């Protein structure tokens, strides 16, 4: 899990750095309630890593009326933590990219 987060963070930093706009607003949709498995995102935010590269990050907590894939499709989130079912959504034609 730690390596997966590190890979995601590095990819996010490199990708967003290419298209860097000062204080770019990014929304990250979680697939569950705030808890320890998301600690890396919160620590990076607390330590100012996102701010250092010009990202204004908003972390959205999951709620029962949210479908993560719909948040991406409706452009209400830029990135989301998903489940393996996303592969089925991709096969069924959803416009998503898995990292």
Q: What descriptors fit this protein?
A:
about 100 residues; alpha/beta; D-Maltodextrin-Binding Protein, domain 2; 3 strands; about 15% strand; globular
Widest sheet, order of strands: 2-1-3
Low-confidence stretches: none
Estimate the helix proportion, in percent.
Answer: 40-55%
Count of helical segments? 5
Whole-number total of structural domains:
1
**For the report, how would you describe the main beta sheet?**
3 strands, parallel
Globular, elongated, flat, extended or rod-shaped: what is the shape?
globular
| CATH architecture heading | 3-Layer(aba) Sandwich
Q: Classify the secondary structure makeup into a structural class.
A: alpha/beta
Q: Beta-strand level of the residues, as a percent range?
A: 5-15%
Order of helices and strands: HEHHEHEH
Q: Under CATH, the topology is which?
A: D-Maltodextrin-Binding Protein, domain 2
Number of E-state strands: 3
In short:
The chain has 99 residues and is α/β, with parallel strands linked by helices. The chain is 42% helix and 14% strand.
Describe this structure in words.
The radius of gyration is 14 Å and the shape is globular. It has 5 helices and 3 strands. It has one domain (2-91): Periplasmic binding protein-like II (D-Maltodextrin-Binding Protein, domain 2, 3-Layer(aba) Sandwich). A 3-stranded parallel beta sheet has the order 2-1-3. The longest helix is centred in the N-terminal third of the chain and has 17 residues, at 2-18. It has 99 residues and is of the alpha/beta class. The protein has helices at 2-18, 39-46, 49-52, 68-73, 85-91; strands at residues 24-29, 55-60, 79-80.
């Amino acid at each position: 899990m730690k390596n997966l987060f590190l890979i995601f963070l590095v990819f996010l930093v490199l990708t967003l750095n290419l298209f860097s706009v000062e204080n770019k607003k990014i929304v990250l949709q979680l697939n569950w309630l705030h808890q320890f498995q998301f600690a890396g995102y919160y620590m990076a935010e607390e330590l100012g890593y996102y701010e250092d590269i010009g990202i204004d990050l908003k972390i959205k907590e999951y709620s029962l009326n949210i479908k993560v894939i719909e948040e991406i499709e409706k452009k209400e989130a830029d990135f989301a933590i998903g489940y393996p079912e996303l592969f089925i959504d991709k096969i069924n034609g959803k416009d998503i990219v898995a990292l």
